[in-house]
# Entry
Amino acid sequence: MEEQPSTSDNHSSPQLLNKWIEIQDSLKKQLITEDRFNWKLPTTKDQDLTGTEEQNQDSYSGGNETLAYVGGVDLSFSKVDPSIACATLVVLDFSTLESVYEDYAIVELLVPYVPGFLAFREAPVLLELLDKMKKTALSSYPQVLMVDGNGLLHPRGFGLACHIGVLADLPTIGVGKNLHHVDGLTQDKVRQLLEDDCNSCSDIFTLIGDSGSTLGAVCESLSLSQTREH
# Structure
């Protein structure tokens, strides 16, 4: 995703921000942070059976099915006009990592970008793509969705990934490029965790705030680290 446009002139009134806060607080009450999905991760034996339409249709009947389809959503902004964006939804067969569904929409975003409230700018068009797929390609509808944005690791504990997850009724994984400094987590603290001997044998470890809450996980790639959050 391209960087968001400058927020120096975002035209967001106190009344609008208060409305967004009320909506966030209301949706946050519906957030589920425990694993309640009806699928399981595939074993080697299961991988030979995943990816079929019949299996994924069965997953909507409440059975304990193997994870078959993983989706991802993102927006990329025009370098000429930052209000113009391309919203994209891609779904992969989890057993083969081959694309089974792709869709996009070119949109004009009139809602300003305000830090902490990204969902009000990006979520509507991404939810429209998901709704369109549910109506036209339900057999390969994702069972879990990766979102280019934060989830629990967010100043208000409810980022874009949470917002979409609640409204779409989907398990989501937020993939954040930047670390929000919340609950005692800072760049220096995370870097120290990466350098600790106890973490030297792993390139993935959880992010736990001062409150004891698990807010996400860090994935270190080569010499660079990026946050990956749940």
User: Anything to note?
Assistant: The two ends are 19 Å apart (CA to CA). The longest strand covers residues 84-93.
